[in-house]
């Protein structure tokens, strides 16, 4: 799962417009932002295995970001940061926290069994990555449905459709590019590249959300 994670951010924005889109988009990949940083630090581990069907990532050690307890901690931390640092309304902060937790749920659908149910415990994952066409269809379908809801809600707020259309087009292009690119290099280099991508998407989300809506007035 890659850009499919952002579908939850778009859906949450349609439901709770007071949450800035960039916080939701960052939240959708907060677990992977942390994972990228820990890859760069050598704390969590990944191998690249081109013989694997679908994704070549062998995510054999990532307890601090992708275990179920860690996902809960990241989610609660996001709610607290949104409330205490960004001063978001409680409902908006909770929306961000739920988006953060959705990352683990979506990963459970597509990952091979590499998600720990507890630290050092059983690993789970339904393995949809092993079926590239259905997995890609799922990601694009999630983006299409959530993006449509976001577009509809922006219309209800009296806002332009062009920023979300451009942002959604970018996400689709990013997914296609990622699907055609094989990861290479060291873990640290891969983590650095992934982190840059996540931050760029977050910055573009902030641009797509500029302007004041009726719901925010």
List the helices and strands and how they pair.
Blueprint: H1 5-15, H2 21-28, H3 30-41, E1 45-48, E2 57-61, H4 63-66, H5 68-84, H6 90-110, E3 115-116, E4 123-124, H7 132-156, H8 162-180, H9 187-208
Features:
two-stranded antiparallel ribbon; 64% helix; mainly alpha; 4 strands; 217 residues
Describe the structure.
40% of the residues are buried. This protein has nine helices and four strands. The chain has one domain (5-207). The model has no long low-confidence stretch (mean pLDDT 93). It has 217 residues and is mainly α. The strands form two sheets. It has a two-stranded antiparallel sheet. The chain has a two-stranded antiparallel ribbon with strand order 3-4.
Any idea how many domains? 1
Residues in helices, as a percent range:
55-70%
Q: How many strand units? A: 4
Based on CA inertia axes, which overall geometry fits? globular
Number of helices: 9
Average pLDDT rating: 93
Alpha carbon gyration radius: 17 Å
Structural class: mainly alpha
What is the rounded distance between the termini?
A: 35 Å
Task: Offer a quick outline of the entry.
The chain is mainly alpha-helical and 217 residues long.
